[in-house]
Write a structure and sequence with these properties.
With 431 residues, the chain is an alpha/beta fold. It is 26% helix and 29% strand. Helix 2 crosses helix 8 (386-408) and helix 6 crosses helix 8. The model is unreliable at 5-32 and 307-318 (pLDDT under 50).
Length: 431
Amino acid sequence: MAVLAAGWLTLLRPAGRYFGFRAHAATVQPEQGKHPAANAARIEQSDDRAKLIFELSAPLDATAFVLADPDRVIVDLPQTDFALDPETGKAAYPPHRKAGLIAAFRFGQLAPGKSRIVIELGAPAQVVLAACDKSDSDGHVRFVVELAKTDRRSFEAAVQTARIQLAALAQPKTAQKPEPESAKPVIMIDPGHGGIDHGAMVKGLIEKELVFDFAKAVAAKLDADGRFKVVMTRDGDSFVPLSERVRMARDGNAALFVSIHADTLSSAADVSGATVYTLSDRASDAEAARVAEKENQSDAAAGLDKTEDASDVSGILFDLTRRETRAYSHFFAHTLVNYWRVAGRLNKNPRRSAGFLVLKAPDVPSVLLELGYLSNEKDGLALASAQWRDKASSQVADAIEAFFAARESGATVTKTDPDRVPVGKIPSAGP
């Protein structure tokens, strides 16, 4: 066990009375035996101490450290199968009781061979212990993350130490050779979230799973068409940083980038329907700003720090985005809205824009499609339906085909004012 902090591990004897919280029962059973499996989790905490305890099938080594903005504890593990309900960590303390040091936690795969636990803090804390305990009588191994309350100055010092050590451990990224030009237009389909970043979760519906299934359906239909080379940013339940998604689109010479997501709005369950977003330096409205802020937190949800992912995506200024690229993004967004009308419900304002990091490739037309709201009962039922998925994904594929057909036929966009699109030239699926 290693702790990245201001000093090495110091063992502290737990003090005070603890109350406990046990995780939800496991709902997903991964393949056993290949990796250590976590089958249960619980929290024990008092005012100034906290423990997060996982029951494992086998012992493992871990590295733990703290980061700020937001305050959190990161625990890195070898690949671990979490046979737990992903919503477990959302209920990190009993209802109607003030949160302790652990406000929430999440877990999942970060990269091939590597898993991660992210603990959101209710107050500054130091890592006391992150190690396996003795096996229980039933053969389970307890993995314990123990925290103790600390002051803000000490916490910030530990954060700085961790960042220095992370920077020293980081391997320099080798330059990727751009993909050779494809004879076919390259369509990059981007299922949002993945791995430790579950996205929205409502009543058993998990965004990362729903959008991955939808993305696969779109890709399959485009592959069957034969006119496109289709690439997905992830091919399973893995985490991909936002900057890496943009890099894949650029290095892969993508002719179009479509990021697929699902939203939730607990304060307004009546809000429903799909929305298509494009990039802008200023959000088109408050709802667009909210969605962009949520989606831009994907890296933070995975516990990434800026020193871990020093890509220049966040530094790509909007003014450097090519006007032609921006105009074609708007052109496709209008096309997609037209085709979606055939498949299902649209939001009352289906075309919006904001500063989405994942859309910032300056030379790749890019849109972000929110399929609907998991917080809306009808939308949730639709997104979980294979029949709806087949119909809706067909409309997305048809919109992509129509977009390229229009470009090949000589349709132009207004480059002097990229936000204005000649409506009469936009392909439509019907009246």
